[in-house]
Design a protein that fits this description.
Ubiquitin-like (UB roll), alpha+beta, about 20% helix
Length: about 90
């Protein structure tokens, strides 16, 4: 079963889990399974229309899925999906 690495900002919604195993054959299915198990992660990951939030980056085995097949990128049983929220801000 693929594993999902949970960033610190989402851990309060996953019982402080740093990594969880969820089913899915592509990145979209994996993220939907994560949301099904931890519903409070939905607003952090997806917009109201169901699209991935623009400030969320998803990596499959250290490869940005945007350069692969996006949410349709195939995921194997031993793969790791990493959620990496974009950071913004700067010095005043």
């Amino acid at each position: 079963m693929p594993s999902v690495k949970i960033p610190p900002v989402l851990r309060k919604h996953t019982g402080d889990a740093t990594e969880v195993d969820v089913a899915g054959s592509d990145v979209g299915e994996v993220l939907n399974a994560l949301v099904a198990e931890y519903p409070e992660t939905r607003d952090q990951l997806f917009s109201d229309d169901g699209e991935l939030n623009r400030f969320v980056n998803i990596y499959l085995n250290d490869e940005d899925v945007r350069v692969l097949d996006g949410l349709g990128t195939a995921v194997g049983e031993t793969d790791t999906v990493m959620i990496l929220p974009a950071m913004a801000g700067g010095a005043r």
